[in-house]
Amino acid sequence: MHVTHLSLADFRSYARVEVPLDPGVTSFVGPNGQGKTNLIEAVGYLATLASHRVSSDAPLVRVGAPRAVVRAAVTQGDRSQLVELELNPGKANRARINRSSQVRPRDVLGIVRTVLFAPEDLALVKGDPGDRRRFMDELITARSPRMAGVRSDYERVLKQRNTLLKSAAMARRHGGAKSGADLSTLDVWDQHLARVGAELLFQRLELISVLQPLADKAYESLAPGGGPLALEYRSSADAAADAGTGVGPDGGTGGPTGREELYARLTAALAGARKQEIERGVTLVGPHRDELVLKLGQLPAKGYASHGESWSYALALRLASYELLRAEGSEPVLVLDDVFAELDARRRERLAELVAPGEQVLVTAAVDDDVPGVLTGARYAVSGGEVARV
Ligand SMILES: Nc1ncnc2c1ncn2[C@@H]1O[C@H](COP(=O)(O)OP(=O)(O)O)[C@@H](O)[C@H]1O
Ligand SMILES: [Mg+2]
């Protein structure tokens, strides 16, 4: 798929901007702070309902404006669609498809598909477990938009269960007897958490099994002979079970595991962790506590890989995401935000060659020289809030 027109109102630094786009490569070039990333951040928002730079919507709305609107015309094969999102910080966002009456924002997921490369990607390798969980969950949602619902259900159940645990922890600390009613409510929330958690866990494990060979191959083409990569999923449920409840898991390795088995494993792990959870007042088991360990050779990349290796790893994960999405559905838009300036000459050249054939590639750079030669295409100069075709 590709975007044929992007239109922003009160988004970030833009009061209004209209950007017609063609398939193939388009680069946005201009000095820092002029609004290049703001443009592609809007494209990414349509694909994920989130920014790759901030976790809330408020900074996306132009200072002083009440709301922002992001609109894109999208073509896939011979079908064209218009998607529109209205961002209302503090209130519900609104969405429309083809100027229809309102739909839920999550109903637009899947129309715009992107794989975004950005300087922030280094956090995939060097950052907290949460950065890698978000990577998995966004990719799961891109593969299967209905997972947006599962993710938000999980967040909701987790929040409510934590509230219950917190009050149980308080009651305990103040010497009050834990009421049986509280604990039976907790049983119900355990089931909800295990049910929704098992679905999320199932999707993550499945994702990792298909992503692993693609990431390994991408790494090999970026840094020949530098691998192999191993993506290891560590489940908090297995850790809790191993910690001596006597529930014997198979360790989470070996063979695909079904949803029912994962449900049973989570339920058992929650039961085993309950005492500690009530002491600490927080949910200690579930996909929100899991870790994706990225290994390069025998060692975890985090803490061991060099800067260049870490970059190659992050790029390999993005390239693998791209291969996966294009193999499973329509080709996503490749977005490269200021990444070439971060890379040495060899990685820069290899990455450029790998992305150049994409159906649509959007590149930002501070200067023309940062855009590799193979990525010649349409050019826009971005400066002082103006986006002008060169
Ligand atoms: N909500 C906002 N309202 C107004 N200006 C904003 C907002 N968010 C960011 N900006 C401005 O946008 C500029 C950064 O734009 P950005 O696209 O990140 O630049 P670059 O061209 O370097 O990628 C900064 O000058 C910043 O002040
Ligand atoms: Mg930028």
Automatic annotation (TrEMBL):
<dbReference type="GO" id="GO:0000731">
    <property type="term" value="P:DNA synthesis involved in DNA repair"/>
</dbReference>
<keyword id="KW-0235">DNA replication</keyword>
<dbReference type="GO" id="GO:0005524">
    <property type="term" value="F:ATP binding"/>
</dbReference>
<dbReference type="InterPro" id="IPR003395">
    <property type="entry name" value="RecF/RecN/SMC_N"/>
</dbReference>
<dbReference type="Pfam" id="PF02463">
    <property type="entry name" value="SMC_N"/>
</dbReference>
<dbReference type="GO" id="GO:0005737">
    <property type="term" value="C:cytoplasm"/>
</dbReference>
<dbReference type="GO" id="GO:0006302">
    <property type="term" value="P:double-strand break repair"/>
</dbReference>
<comment type="similarity">
    <text>Belongs to the RecF family.</text>
</comment>
<keyword id="KW-0742">SOS response</keyword>
<feature type="domain" description="RecF/RecN/SMC N-terminal">
    <location>
        <begin position="3"/>
        <end position="366"/>
    </location>
</feature>
<keyword id="KW-0067">ATP-binding</keyword>
<comment type="function">
    <text>The RecF protein is involved in DNA metabolism; it is required for DNA replication and normal SOS inducibility. RecF binds preferentially to single-stranded, linear DNA. It also seems to bind ATP.</text>
</comment>
<dbReference type="GO" id="GO:0009432">
    <property type="term" value="P:SOS response"/>
</dbReference>
<protein>
    <recommendedName>
        <fullName>DNA replication and repair protein RecF</fullName>
    </recommendedName>
</protein>
<dbReference type="InterPro" id="IPR042174">
    <property type="entry name" value="RecF_2"/>
</dbReference>
<dbReference type="InterPro" id="IPR027417">
    <property type="entry name" value="P-loop_NTPase"/>
</dbReference>
<keyword id="KW-0234">DNA repair</keyword>
<keyword id="KW-0547">Nucleotide-binding</keyword>
<dbReference type="InterPro" id="IPR001238">
    <property type="entry name" value="DNA-binding_RecF"/>
</dbReference>
<dbReference type="InterPro" id="IPR018078">
    <property type="entry name" value="DNA-binding_RecF_CS"/>
</dbReference>
<feature type="binding site">
    <location>
        <begin position="30"/>
        <end position="37"/>
    </location>
    <ligand>
        <name>ATP</name>
    </ligand>
</feature>
<dbReference type="GO" id="GO:0006260">
    <property type="term" value="P:DNA replication"/>
</dbReference>
<keyword id="KW-0227">DNA damage</keyword>
<keyword id="KW-0963">Cytoplasm</keyword>
<dbReference type="GO" id="GO:0003697">
    <property type="term" value="F:single-stranded DNA binding"/>
</dbReference>
<keyword id="KW-0238">DNA-binding</keyword>
